[in-house]
Amino acid sequence: MKQCKITVFVKDLSIRLRKEVRAGSLHVTTTVVICLSMVSFVVILTVFINNNVKKYLVSEDHSYFPQLAAFTPLSSWSPYPYFPCNSSLSPPSLQQLQFPITSLRDWLAPKELRHSMNDKELLWRASMVPHIDEYPYNHTPKVAFMFLTRGRLPLAPLWEMFFKGHEGLYSIYLHKSLEITDEAPESSAFYKRWIPSKPAEWGRATMIDAERRLLANALLDFSNERFVLLSETCIPVFNFSTIYNYLMNSNQSFLGSFDDPRHMGRGRYNKRMWPTVTLSDWRKGSQWFEVLRKLAIEMVSDVKYYPVFRDHCRPPCYMDEHYFPTLVTKIFPELNSNRSITWVDWSRGGSHPTRFVRKDVSEAFLNQIRNGFNCTYNGSITTVCFLFARKFHPSTLDPLLRIAPGLLGFHS
Ligand SMILES: *[C@@H]1O[C@H](CO)[C@@H](O)[C@H](O)[C@H]1NC(C)=O
Ligand SMILES: *[C@@H]1O[C@H](CO)[C@@H](O)[C@H](O)[C@H]1NC(C)=O
Ligand SMILES: *[C@@H]1O[C@H](CO)[C@@H](O)[C@H](O)[C@H]1NC(C)=O
Ligand SMILES: *[C@@H]1O[C@H](CO)[C@@H](O)[C@H](O)[C@H]1NC(C)=O
Ligand SMILES: *[C@@H]1O[C@H](CO)[C@@H](O)[C@H](O)[C@H]1NC(C)=O
Ligand SMILES: *[C@@H]1O[C@H](CO)[C@@H](O)[C@H](O)[C@H]1NC(C)=O
Fold first, then answer.
1. Same domain as 257, residue 240
2. For the chain, is the Cβ count within 10 Å smaller at the N or the C terminus?
């Protein structure tokens, strides 16, 4: 590593310089300063020549990629800016660093979910929108299933059954807690679907950051048109094709949003949010949303309301129950049905919804969720109001796997 030696040499010189100054020898100092300037000049010249030679070599090898030069760091000291000298990792090859753009496909979706963008870079990248409506390629819309998980995904076998046979119509994204390091088997729908994650605290801004991180990663794939946020306790209550068609044929999003006059609603409004957010703007809703692409882009692009919520929505105000419901009502009320498609049971009271265990699961129970309600869909009344349900304990997996093939029409 030549760059390292140069750094060490410069460090060495500066230490010597400091010693000289302490010794009070002005003459020696001047000499050293001159020497140092000359060394710097030589070093810069070397790097410059080095880069030019590399550019020359590179363009000889791949002269059919004129974009290459733009991706080569021209004036940087090191061609491997993200790999410090002491790193035990070996630097990537030049080939990997230059990302040659060979076809439109390379722009449409990242090949790998792993990336080195920080949140700010990621959100900016995800906020980009094409200005030509018509696709120049065969565009098959997909549903992005975004799992915001606290630990593992105990109901994964049910989801595997749900996804099976529908490849190409969905994408999966997992936001994991950091202690989970194991990978799903290669045959799994969840294989290599983790996104770069950070710790998220319930009710805090870090939870919204995690949701926006999921949305932004999913937005990088231009085929994703609907975005569902799910937790590890969620289950699907219809088969894939029913859910896919329900979402794709709707011109609205399903993000719960209502005005709750009680203290656990309007009572959480903080006057300091005024005038950006007023009390009449204030909304509440479930964290588990489903949105269409246009709304997802707004949700990752918001720089106006997010700081106000981050600074002034602190417990007992829970950001995940108020930020998106208020934001969406404020910017695109006509694109939202204001109802969630994830069923949950609050009927037993308290501050947490009912958690279902093995003995609760039956066909009758699932049918009640599937058809036991009335709501508006695309302008008309329907009994299919919920496509997903929570909160299901890991012990429900066995009965669910037993019921699913018949009732939900899953492939097994
Ligand atoms: C490399 O050096 C940086 C800064 O000097 C230090 O923070 C880091 O821990 C070092 N890494 C290794 C792998 O030694
Ligand atoms: C819902 O409305 C959209 C646009 O108005 C239409 O394209 C779609 O077919 C409708 N879906 C259903 C299920 O009626
Ligand atoms: C959702 O709520 C907003 C704001 O209250 C309203 O403008 C919009 O019409 C509602 N949407 C539906 C489908 O009722
Ligand atoms: C839904 O609407 C039907 C027909 O209007 C009615 O018979 C039924 O009781 C309603 N169900 C609920 C849960 O409100
Ligand atoms: C959605 O579709 C319904 C039924 O076709 C229509 O009445 C409604 O205006 C549409 N809404 C939007 C926002 O396009
Ligand atoms: C999915 O369920 C619907 C009805 O709920 C059924 O008509 C359809 O055949 C099922 N699809 C598959 C692939 O099993």
1. yes
2. C
